[in-house]
Fold these 4 entries.
Entry 1:
Amino acid sequence: MFAKLKTPLIYLILIAGLGFAIFHLFLNTQVEDGAQQSTAPLFAASFPNEKGETKPLSAYQGKIVVLNFWATWCEPCREEMPELSELHEAYAAKNVVVLGVAIDEVSAISEFTNSTKVSYPLFAADMAGMEIATNLGNNKGVLPYTVVIKADGTVHQTFFGRISKAMLEKSLNPIL
């Protein structure tokens, strides 16, 4: 009897394990454990904007920051930008700023912004941006990746993949 059940049982365990792995690696879109993630490297960094002017990110300390890691070649990144622009404009008076850190070069961002209107600051960080994203919880190395940082500099919430204005508003409301 056990011999007849052994093969289907093994398949069932393999399927359950595979399902868990797929959920954990690809479908789990947010991580709320921000206590272990330090924003110090972020606020210590300076990156060029789309015009090539280097700006210190320390200028945004003390604000609620919606930090979006993206790239010009990333389709989901480009799709979420209009909603990020709307959020930036709607919450500017509430001490909230949206920042876009591109895993790209200045020339790519400059070319991108010539054809696409973005209302929030964009910075070219190239691979240094991925190091900061990893430090802030992007253990999957995916783009887009968004981090909501409280005014005290602690990580409030992180999101893997494409986000929406509604998702971010839900995250922001408790910390406003």
Entry 2:
Amino acid sequence: MDLSPRRLGLKTRTADAHHALDTMIGGFDTAENYARYLDGMARFRLPVEAWLATQPLPAGFEDWHPGLYAEELLADLDDLGLAVPADLPPFVLPEGSGVIGLHYVLEGSALGARLLAKRAQALGFTDVRGARHLFAQARNFSNWRAFSDRMENVCVYDETAAAAWADTAFDYARNAFESSMNAHRLYRRPVELRP
């Protein structure tokens, strides 16, 4: 598949950070592993989405809306009987006007959500119980395409700043998943769907 120039540039510049996150997340083949994944995703997306809600969209994106999944994540946590993570570190922003890089990471997660939704479904988690956020992302793949088109066509684009913001998002996510893994090591308990 041929990637557009800006998408290829960001993919290349952020490959190491993206790979480090994917390696940390790994796969989930048990309900307990899925609970760890869900907790890590909440620790990542909830603070980032809260910050995004206070920010204007970048120039050239005014007719587009990012995919936000906090509501679905909160419902999924509740389904598994998991507490909403507290005392989350703030999302610290890099210098420059590279918010497009942050959106690149968030919208690009729809690509992986398709695979992760299938894995979650194999464990009994669905679009109405426990994996709403994954199925919502997977169904919203058209938003990724719309974002990619706009990214290629905006007049003002700073690839260095966008890559820095994308790397920051990948690093923040990796720290969130690492924090989740540490928390789950301390408080192991079986996870079951509530009736």
Entry 3:
Amino acid sequence: MSYPAEPWDLHGHAYVGAFLVPHAHLPAPHSPATTPITIFGRGIVSAAFFVYEQPSPLTYDEIMSTVLVREGWRLRVSITHIWVNSADSRDGGRELWAIPKDLADFQVLPHHTYVAEGIGALTLRTVRRLPWRLPLAFQIAQDRAGTLQVSPVAGRARLGIAGARWSFASDGPIGFLADRRPLLTLAVRPFALMFGHKSA
């Protein structure tokens, strides 16, 4: 096993764009046991660049797209598309949490420009940060061979609002976000998140 056991104690920064996407263009949740949450016929989709830094057990770059879903009445996050530049992270994500990670090439100038080749890019203009760190907690809902797997994520982060330009390859894997403007872009910097279940 070339990746650490769960939970992963992750540190770094991220920028997260929130989009409203018409139901007809929504990516399917990773697990059919969950249902997209819609507001006036639009689902809530995020795109995010993450940079995992020391003292994380693995350091790498990541781009993902998620859909806000529900399991019954419980809110969940479904990771539908995700790429990293670490084979260990790819393998760990797939085997521990059924997260469909693939590999991609990245060009990152921290807090300025983020590019995942053939997928998407982000250019930052301004960031207004809150003066305190806030608690974060949510659960990831993924499909593992027809069974719903729910994994917890919890920690703290300093949040802010970023002025940013997102772009996505229209013929790329998350082309459903091409030419769409986000409702907002959150700056999550820094964060400290515990991903996965603690060992008994």
Entry 4:
Amino acid sequence: MNRKYEGMIVLNTQGTESSVDDLVSTVSKELEEEGAKLDEVKQLGRKKFAYNARKLDGGHYVNYVFEASGEVIRKVQSRLKLNNSVHLQHYQRLS
């Protein structure tokens, strides 16, 4: 059963040669390849962290709204853990 989810992804743009838009579209493609149907992608911009996390002082925040099943969420989390550009990911189900 597909439900609506919101995913907050923090991208590590430090030391990358590609633009932020390329990183956002790469993550979008990975979500779609696992079976998620994207509804909306909002770039919230670069924000500083309260403290340095894994030698990073900030990241580019992107909010993804999509439809998927719970199984797809687990697959997406596993797949994005392997992506060095993804610093942090959090998902929540929307009502």
